Request: fold
Amino acid sequence: MSHKIKHSQHISKNCLVCGVDNGFGLKTRFYETEDNQLIAVFRPLDEHQSYPKVTHGGISAAILDEVIGRAIMMTAGSATFGVTIELKVRYKKPVPTCVELKAIGRITRDSGRIFEGTGELYLPGGEIAVEAEGRYMKRRIDQITADDFAENEWFEPQERLPREIDL
Reply:
């Protein structure tokens, strides 16, 4: 299934999921679709494995937690984060390392301060490997960190925006 992309989201320097300066990070990029879903594109390394050539389940959970929690930025802006209250993960198939993978997340309910969402992690052939649903609390950057994170570590990626992403 092809998704038309309208915007990319900010990334940071040191985050495990999106940090460009984190040597062990996933360096994930996030793209907002025209149908209000968020797609994460990443490539797990051998350092992210549990069994040989299989991505650790915690990494799969982390990517889904991030893509669902970030989905709130599509309506609340790039300075609003989803802080995890609860995350339920279902593992269906092994997730390989060293290949490009995609995950998609969306908001299913927004009650003001609390929101809920779902997401899926896709294998290169389009099969769903992992599913998640979660509850999150909306928080502004200044409620999470007291330093100058927004000015020094939170920025738009410089890569060209893809027109479409296939899952």
